[in-house]
Please model this.
Amino acid sequence: MARKYIDCRDYPQTDKRCSVAISADSDKELLEAVVQHGITVHGYADTKEFRNEILKGMKEGSPPA
Model:
């Protein structure tokens, strides 16, 4: 299974700059980590729509340095 990631730098926030990138070996593990980050750092609600956006934004490989 290919490693996947989400990089917050791809989703600029107007309220705060975030340079966190999260990667994992499974979609489920990555989804849960990104949801927790989104809730605690960016104030998102844990909704079906938020989770679907995360799933659509997952990329294969590792985040760029």
Remarks:
- The chain has one domain: 4-60.
- The radius of gyration is 11 Å.
- The chain has a mean pLDDT of 91.
